[in-house]
Amino acid sequence: MDKIEVGEIFSITDENNEENEVEVLAAITIEGTDYVAVGFVDDIRDETDEDIDVFFMKLDQEGDLAPIESDEEFEKISSVFDDILNEEE
């Protein structure tokens, strides 16, 4: 997979084997690893005042999106993305 850009839309499969469209809200590289913050396209386009669910993922060695599995890595990445996303508001 090539470098992921903000605004890209793609499908991911959840734990129930259902496909969901997500949009990239932010992308960063930390210590040589690319991470993205994504939200469900339907939630983003609803334009309500409600908060949307944001998920953090990383590019694995094959260039595919993968979940962040360790709590330590998740906390570090979510903190950085929180700062980025809050600056954009």
TrEMBL record:
Pfam families registered for this protein in UniProt: DUF1292 (PF06949)
InterPro entries linked to this entry: UPF0473
Protein name: DUF1292 domain-containing protein
Organism: Metabacillus halosaccharovorans
